[in-house]
Amino acid sequence: MARSLVEAEYQGVPVGFTEDGWFNATKEAERFGKSPHEWLRLPATREYLEAIERRYGKIPYVRTSKARLDRGGGTWLHPRLAVRFAQWLNVDFAVWCDEQIDAILRGEHAHFDWKRTRSETTSTTKVMREVLRLVRLDEGKTTGPHHYMKEAKLVNWAVSGEFKGLDRGSLALDELALLASLEERNAVLLGRGIGYDDRKKMLEQHALDWRAGHQAKIGRAA
């Protein structure tokens, strides 16, 4: 079954949850030299699962995929079981899992900040492209793919220092946020009729100011 994974790091190792809090018990048990089937066979586990079903109803609280482990295979546990299973593995790991699942179910995990920001860049890109088209239309010019690409590469340069395409899916949250801010700023500058060379300087300065402000926020939070 296809799953969109929320990844977090525990002691430097990535741990995957689904966006609704499910947990790959097989993968995480390996690091502790255990197997979820051992835990599922325990009388206390069966008793607990029966109690959950009495309370919340009989649904698939345990799911198994025959896919390769690195492709989402293994035994997956519902969030109502995940922390109890994690306690069997390691109590410190269980506390950490509880925090991650709680943040996921509340929609407060950093993963969701990334998704919201990624969606925002889709909107700012559309706005920037439309402003470019309208400005050129007012000048009696048509707008082709190379014009849009030129603006995209300009913004990408302000983010990465290189005039090339960016894989937005691989950008960190702060890079995505900066990209959205730059596209928004570039749309405003285009609308004001500011030329390419001047916009390049202004976007470079905007990126520097944005990063300085971002670092200052991190410093205050620390």
TrEMBL record:
SMART domains: KilA-N. Residues 4-104 form the KilA-N domain. PROSITE patterns: KILA_N. GO terms for molecular function: DNA binding. InterPro entries: HTH_APSES_sf, KilA/APSES_HTH, KilA_N. This is KilA-N domain-containing protein. It comes from Methylomagnum ishizawai.
